[in-house]
Write a structure and sequence with these properties.
Rhopdopsin 7-helix transmembrane proteins; 2 domains; Prostanoid_rcpt; G-protein coupled receptor; membrane
Length: 365
């Protein structure tokens, strides 16, 4: 039924470019806005001498946003050109070169995005699981090398169909190309299944890493509460609280991005596996197109996670929700200051953590 879609050269006149145009506009605007916010945050942290704590995380996140932006800018305009010319990707150039470019780009950027998410989650997992080894071994140079190797591997994988291992085909309505999810040749079917398996393994690995980080943060929180009456020093307690707060700031967007990526990726993974086990040769390009749009939505939503879950927004939300408790806390601190006289208790409201610093007296030693 859909075999003719692989070679058709004209787009049906009733097809509308509206959805693709909206997705393209939102993707560019969101990613550019996220880059601006991340740059503002980087400069603020640089002025506050917070480079080490946020440096690696910032590198991974800004690489992820750049990847999403590049993927949107290098593929979506071709869709709009196809609608404007009323010509499919196969019909734009001989030997289906535009179609092959589009398919390899989609494969590369989908793998690169989830790989960057995995590297970021693994970095946080290592940082909180082995903090001393992490501080000695992991550097910005290590981050740049890891990202470069990851990009190289993704490029090589996306180029395999050019050496007859896998194939890119055009899907209806003729405005997108991707891995053939229902191929007849065995090697092409292996390639499609390998792509889906890699995506699934990376998603599960990201979930496992984020779960480990959340568990370790919960253990640190409980340990801090148990040691509250016998803390070694107020300074060490403050440092632990700041460390936990920063890790929570990193974990929250990672968790939301993981959930979003699971929702956006699983339809495509399911379609690949489903098509590979079908006994007949039937295809459903409508379902495949919906799965591809889910995959494309990920690059639109990701930057808004950074915009809506930036530390300043989280701090404002926490202060708004906890306003009553904060007032009681400050009241108790003021009473303690009046009672002890020589105890100063600065409360920092611009951070998600608060602490007091009191010199030891006969009452509190």
């Amino acid at each position: 039924k859909y075999t003719k879609c692989h070679s058709k050269k004209d787009i049906e006149p009733n097809e509308s470019p509206m959805i693709s145009a909206i997705m393209f506009g939102l993707g560019v605007f969101g990613n550019v806005a996220a880059l601006v916010i991340l740059e503002i945050r980087r400069r603020r942290d640089a002025r506050a001498n917070d480079r080490r704590r946020r440096g690696l995380f910032h590198i991974f996140i800004i690489s992820l946003v750049f990847t999403d932006l590049a993927g949107t800018c290098l593929t979506s305009p071709l869709v709009q050109i196809a609608y404007a010319w009323n010509t499919t990707l196969v019909g734009m150039a001989p030997n289906s070169s535009v179609c092959n470019y589009f398919g390899s780009s989609m494969t590369f950027f989908s793998l690169a995005t989830i790989s960057l998410l995995f590297i970021t989650a693994l970095d946080r997992c290592f940082a909180i699981g082995q903090p001393y080894l992490y501080n000695r071994v992991v550097t910005k140079k290590w981050a740049y090398i890891t990202i470069s190797v990851m990009f190289l591997v993704c490029i090589l994988f996306s180029l395999l169909p050019f050496v007859e291992f896998g194939v890119y085909v055009q899907y209806c309505p003729g405005t997108w190309c991707f891995i053939d999810m229902n191929p007849l040749e065995k090697e092409h079917r292996v390639y499609a299944n390998l792509y889906a398996t890699i995506m699934l393994v990376l998603v599960l690995s990201i979930v496992a890493c984020n779960g480990f980080v959340a568990y370790q943060l919960f253990r640190m929180y409980r340990r801090r509460n148990r040691q509250g009456s016998v803390m070694k020093s107020m300074r060490s307690s403050s440092e632990r609280r700041v460390f936990v707060a920063v890790e929570v700031e990193h974990l929250i967007p990672l968790v939301f991005m993981t959930i979003i990526f699971i929702v956006c990726t699983l339809p495509m993974v399911i379609r690949v596996f489903y098509n590979s086990i079908r006994d007949d040769d039937g295809e459903s390009h409508e379902d495949d197109l919906r799965a591809l749009r889910f995959l494309s939505i990920n690059s639109i939503i990701d930057p808004w996670v950074f915009i809506l879950l930036s530390p300043s927004v989280l701090h404002f939300f926490c202060l708004s929700v906890c306003k009553t408790r904060l007032g009681k806390f400050r009241g108790s601190v003021s009473e303690s200051m009046l009672a002890k006289g020589n105890c100063s208790a600065p409360v920092e409201l611009s951070r998600p953590t608060m602490w007091t610093n009191c010199p030891p007296t006969e009452d509190n030693v």
